[in-house]
User: Which sequence fits this backbone?
């Protein structure tokens, strides 16, 4: 009889474990999709809607940087809410180490996970670990996406000044004379003689 009771409790705990894992996966996917869509919307606006506003190129780059920083902070907030929901209402796990007492504590843990800083003073248990892993991955992807967007934008907007060389005329990044000099000095192969 005691053996049957233990077997029943073991089976019930296994079923509960699978169910909480599914909830953790669903919550992770929802947070992933929400943050990815937020990021996509922000980048689309920066490349499309913001392009219609006449702004100096360096000011545009600074504005996009501020927008992307704000979006990243909001995405960290999405995961902070997911952690609070998962721990307090869905009972998917707990946090050990430093106590999580206020919403700012969830935000702090989310920020260290999103940026892959991972200080280690707070760490998740049980199925919260899956959500943490998903946040670290999406944070890495979204930060890289922002960096590549800024890089492409700066390549399109900024005109690089020619670099002075100690042994000759100024050159651009490709090693050629600046475009203005090429247009003025390029008179053909015969040196302008006809």
Assistant:
């Amino acid at each position: 009889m005691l053996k049957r009771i233990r077997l029943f409790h073991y089976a019930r705990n296994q079923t509960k474990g699978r169910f909480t894992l599914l909830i953790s996966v669903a919550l992770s996917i929802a947070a992933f999709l929400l943050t990815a869509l937020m990021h996509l919307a922000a980048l689309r606006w920066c490349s499309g809607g913001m392009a219609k506003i006449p702004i100096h190129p360096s000011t545009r780059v600074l504005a996009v940087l501020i927008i992307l920083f704000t979006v990243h902070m909001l995405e960290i907030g999405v995961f902070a809410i997911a952690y609070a929901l998962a721990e307090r209402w869905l009972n998917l796990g707990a946090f050990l180490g430093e106590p999580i007492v206020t919403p700012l504590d969830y935000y702090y843990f989310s920020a260290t996970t999103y940026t892959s800083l991972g200080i280690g003073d707070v760490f998740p248990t049980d199925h919260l670990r899956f959500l943490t892993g998903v946040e670290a991955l999406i944070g890495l992807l979204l930060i890289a996406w922002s960096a590549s967007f800024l890089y492409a934008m700066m390549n399109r907007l900024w005109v690089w000044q020619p670099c002075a060389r100690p042994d000759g005329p100024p050159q651009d990044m490709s090693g050629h004379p600046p475009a203005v000099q090429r247009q003025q000095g390029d008179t053909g192969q015969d040196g302008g003689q006809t």
About this structure: Residues 2-49 form the longest helix (48 residues). The radius of gyration is 27 Å. The first strand starts at residue 95 and ends at 97.
